[in-house]
Amino acid sequence: MMMRRRTTLLSGCTALVLALGATACGGGEPVAAGGGDQALSGQTVSVAGVWSGSEQKNFQKVLDAFTEKTGAETRFVPTGDNVSTVVGSKIEGGDAPDVVMVPQVGVLQQFAKKGWLRPLSKTTEKSVDSGFASVWKKYGSVDGTFYGLYFKAAHKSTVWYSPEALDQAGVEAPETYDDMLKAGRVVSDSGLAAFAVAGQDGWTLTDWFENVYLSQAGPDKYDALAAHDIAWTDASVVKALTTLGKLFKDEQLLAGGQKGALNTDFPGSVEKVFGPQAEAAMVYEGDFVAGVAKDQFGRAIGEDADFFPFPAVGGGEAPVVSGGDAAVVLKDGKHPEAAMKLLEYLATPEAAAVWAKAGGFLSPNKDLDPASYGDDVTRATAESLVAAGDSVRFDMSDQAPAAFGGTKGVGEWKILQDFLRDPSDPEATAARLEAAAAKAYED
């Protein structure tokens, strides 16, 4: 694994950068977050986002650290999953939040094109230029203007497994997709299903497809398909569906078979591997699997729950698919100055370290000291994400219009569920995907 530059969070230049009103190293404009001089006392920054439970609790720790430094109070506004509708309603009602944590590239682009967003400050932009791979700025920009700071990232190219189950079957972590299926058949011969697939949640199936497609077709094709510059009937899509179908049609590999997979949601898929009554050895999904395995089922991460990178497909490179939440500043918010200062703070490794210590978090900021993470597995996942640099590709379905890539029961989610149910005709599935995509991109 390629190691990245390590920094000490509060020493030297970084300490100066984090001090409120201090001049950034090498000159330039003042840095606005930090120092504790309470310069923003009397202002309250409202921050809207989808987070709930432990995620909201841990993000509040970051907001509290910002309050301690600047004096600005914060108020978190839960949006539920439909961020676009909730934020639009609040803007129309004259109660726009100051900051929104946007979970989808497509929604960020929608907000920008509606004229809802303020460009981020030069201070934030400088922090991102120096501390983040350029791909993160690309995904946060619309028509060349930088609107979205990716504060929290997800690594969606991780396959989680029970070390005990793989040890008992005598198999090791595979390096290719075909080897992963072979290992799965050996596991199933030992009496335990290979994979728990969360087919009830269509978004997990889009993630399966995206990893296969990125590795097999390559990043250029991935970018073209994400932008709908090539059709979903392209031969590369049919090939990826055929490859994915090798797993979906193999009853020996799926816990409960296709019917069982279609009746399993994401938490249920993790339970089937790490719960008290194990039914499978492996579950594919992002780094957030670890949080469920630890918090709900008491698994020790790195001991009785571990991961291997999603393996390379068809001679391609191993994929690194990511997701994330971008902080944006709304034009109609009541405290734009304090909102901008919050984003300047979120762009620092200091802010990322607060949540990294609490757990359930990855930062794309390469200046965050890996020691900030609380366990070796999370640290390795974060380093893998950062080491991928500009080869990271954002979740394709999150880049698409929500009607195609992000709505339950329709579009890509529904079509891939149907493909899981019957993977016998990849070409017909590709045609259905193209029809749904063409309609969504036109609307």
Automatic annotation (TrEMBL):
Signal peptide: 1-24
A Pfam family annotated for this UniProt entry: SBP_bac_1
NAD in keyword set: no
Classification via SUPFAM superfamilies: Periplasmic binding protein-like II (SSF53850)
Keywords in alphabetical order: Signal, Transport
Tagged with keyword Transport: yes
Family: Belongs to the bacterial solute-binding protein 1 family.
Protein name: Sugar ABC transporter substrate-binding protein
